[in-house]
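Justification of resources, computational component.

The compute hours requested in this renewal are based largely on the per-chain cost of generating structure records like the one below. Each record pairs the submitted sequence with a full structure-token output. That output is archived, and it is also reused by downstream analysis tasks.
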Amino acid sequence: HSIAAQLPAVARVADRPAVGGEGVLRQLFDWSEDAPQWHPSGRALRLTNASEDEITRGWGPAADEARRIAERELAGPEGAALVKVLSELSRRRTEFYTRIAAEAPDAASTHGQDQATEHSVHHAAASCLYTWLYSFERERAEPGGSGWLVLALQRLLRRLDHTTE
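The structure output for this chain reads:
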């Protein structure tokens, strides 16, 4: 229930990237860097994420950057396919979070759990996108170098069709 219960708060800020979020995302998804060390103070430890999801919140700027890269650096068909899937995911994402913010579903209901599943798909899509942006800078412009991202995002987009049936 925890994801579903937090969705209304997440949805209210879904179109606003977290302050300092890009640095955090780069640190998490850039494979050339060591994973960040976490040394929490036992006195200050709070077991909550405060209804935040920096990963999904950063989608808009990341998708815009990916579109620019696709249009400038990628081969025609691959770039066009990436722009198409990014545009469709962005549209679906906007509709989803707008709907959640407006209706605040019951987290314990089947519908609430379906919405948590859909949020998880958007989270996965954003994670794939950040990995491509931050870890595949050299490879992505080579022929087929971005095909994995296009295929992963297309598959996740198809998964969204199952969450809305």
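The longest helix spans residues 76-103. The radius of gyration is 17 Å.
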